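Batch manifest, entry 17 of 40.
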Amino acid sequence: MNQTTKVLEVMIRLGETGEAFVCVTLAEARGSVPQEPGAKMLVTGEGRACGTVGGGRVEEAAIKHARELLAGRPKISCELIEWNLQKDIGMTCGGVVKFFFEVFCPSWPIAIFGAGHVGQALVRILAGLSCRVSVYDTRPEMLSQLTQASNVKARLIEPLEDGVREIPEGAFVVVMTQGHRTDKPVLERILKTRSFPYLGAIGSASKAAVLRRELRESGVEGDLTEAFRCPIGLPLGRDTPEEIAISIAAELLEVRGA
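Output type: structure tokens
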């Protein structure tokens, strides 16, 4: 399999999983450059996914810049940069390269743990927005009641925390399972293994205090126990599933736009 075919296959896979990535193309090369123009590399938030644009320090610089673009998304969608290998990269060989960086950000990913009454109401709202919603629950009868939409995916999974590994980078995560007992394992798995721009759990301030204490007792390190929101939702509306869902959706939009 040649490099171009491999890059295309990985691009399709990343698109299907909803993970943001940058396609780096060597647009022009002059002098002592270890790759031909047209060489491509894919970079995710974790680093190089496949392909190469030369290896060594020049590729390291391209990966670093690509990850910075992902961290700042959606401010820049594409960028053409010229680097002098000696002056800008610190390499001993002479040469100049131009890299074209294309940022691919799929629809806003949202993961919801729990398909209860508030979860159902929240999905009804989110289904009409430009986002991709994955709903995780252990109860098939609850998942079957979710709004049917092309951007909503129901995931029957047990234990619930196993769904954490499926969540794409950059997702907003809402935890609203059947209660504190089932919320905690999901939060613990996330706080020990992942990081997301929004992580919230439904509940009161007293529930938040209990969760944070138990998470510390389970080995979640100090500051990480403060890395989730609880209660969630903007301070508006009444205490009904529909109005709670509206307040949560409003908070998600507020954070996304910050």
